[in-house]
Amino acid sequence: MVIISCIPTWIQKIIGSYIEDAHVRDILTLLEVDSHGPNLWHYSTGILRKKDKIYILYH
Q1: pTM to 2 decimals?
Q2: Quick one: pLDDT at residue 56?
């Protein structure tokens, strides 16, 4: 059985931009420490969201 997953290029670029962003790393660390508390931020399938909007690094 083979499972194929297609990830659009724009999503791959967003996920890749998170590696360079210290702010994202801080948020992800906070989510790991307190994942059950009320939070504006959510991290799922490699995408960081705030109030259901995708966080995109601005250059």
Answers
A1: 0.71
A2: 87
